[in-house]
Every structure is written in structure tokens, then in C-alpha cells.
Amino acid sequence: MRKRAAEMYVDGGNIRRIARHLKVAPQTVAFWVTDLAETLPNAPMPEEVQEAEMDEIFTFIGDKKTEFIF
């Protein structure tokens, strides 16, 4: 059941919805997901970053031609 709860969470499931579906308390699902996440290995980190991408919202805000007058 823990594995199924984790799969549902990774697939985008809401903790309350998962709990309702599995007929357990939402806090139980949260504990299961947290416990599983703690057992995962750390994400690999590159020694040197060669290229980075910025989010579109940064570009949008940076390119705005609006002047603010206070």
C-alpha cells in the first residue's frame, strides 16, 4: 500500500485524495511519502555548470517597458 501511495503521489495525486482512495489518514500518506523520499539517493550535481536556462517569467519581467512612478 505504501508503494501504491508513493506512485500516486509521484503521478501528481493530492495527499487527501490518495488517503481517501486507500482508506487511510492523510497524515499516514504524508509519512509514507516522506519516509520514501528520505531513502532516495541525492541528485547528482555536476562539477561545473556550462549552461543555465532562465524561466520565462524572468524574461517577461526584465523586458517590460513600464515605468513605475512613486
Can you give me a brief rundown of this structure?
This protein is mainly alpha-helical. It contains four helices and no strands.
**Shape category:** flat
Q: What is the helix/strand order?
A: HHHH
Helix content: 40-55%
Alpha carbon gyration radius = 20 Å
Number of contiguous helices: 4
Mean pLDDT: 84
How large a portion of the residues is in β-strands, by DSSP E? under 5%
- Major sheet size, sense and barrel closure: none
Total strand count, please? 0
Describe this structure in words.
The chain has 70 residues and is an all-alpha fold. The chain has a domain at 1-40. Helix content is 54%, strand content 0%. It contains 4 helices and no strands. The longest helix is centred in the middle third of the chain and has 14 residues, at 26-39. The termini are far apart.
Q: How would the blueprint of this fold be written?
A:
Elements: H1 2-10, H2 15-22, H3 26-39, H4 56-62
Helix pairs in contact: 1-3, 2-3
